[in-house]
Prior knowledge:
Helices cover 45% and strands 13% of the residues. With 285 residues, the chain is of the alpha/beta class. Helix 3 runs parallel beside helix 4 (121-140), helix 7 (192-201) runs parallel beside helix 8 (225-234) and helix 8 crosses helix 10 (267-284).
Amino acid sequence: MKVGINLMLWTGHVTPADAPLLAALKDTGFDGVEVPLFDVSSSAHFAGLAGILDGIGLERTATAILPDEAHNPISPDPAVRARAVQHLERVIDCAAALGAQVLAGPLFQPLGLFSGAGPTEAELERCAEVHRAVAERARAANLPLALEPLNRFECYLLNTCEQASAYLDRLDAPGFGILYDTFHAHIEEKDPVAALRKALARGHVAHVHISENDRGTPGRGHARIAEAIAALKQTGYDGWLTIEAFGKGLPELAAATRVWRDFFSSPEEVYTEGHHFIRACWGQA
Length: 285
């Protein structure tokens, strides 16, 4: 098991200027960081960042989104779906340049896009068509893709682990898995830990986000994080446990994640307490 933290707590675009923060995270005991891939115009940028992270001694995962409706994998317009493929190809190239061990996120629809109904068979199949188109590129980069079910207020295609598992069966493409997020599971699952255990039993869990019910400091809320970590350890999970928390420091990210008030006293509280809490939960499991 490795402990990481998503750098969206500080920035949506990591640069060499963030090296002191990265060093502080390494000193705290983190094995790696999760790098947001929002600006994917230059894979060379992420290759340079890989060198900085190697020098500090941090491994990395990556997270990404579909930027807007013009890059929507479930659109009925073939031209829009083609742009979704092109965007995901750029994301994969940047993640490979970064040396990411996992590429995760809601890579199936843009955030905040709704039809007024649940997902249709046609939408699911169109999305699978897009993912099949990029699957070989990801496999060639040795890059697992972890699809993140989000709560119903952020998306509608995949909200639960069961839906995500059914989608993986439909997709039938090696290299795809599920990102289990304790925040989204807290909202959507009848029993978050049972849902996790079922996904683990099916071999579908590729990545894990540790996120409190309020998106604040892990261990200070009532999401079933300790129980989830115990289930992961008991079933032999040896991947990442990555803290995901959001603050108000970046207005655009705060708006996207619906952060209207402070959930913690400082980012240092999140990463020091969060790291300690995850290690303690794993040790006690």
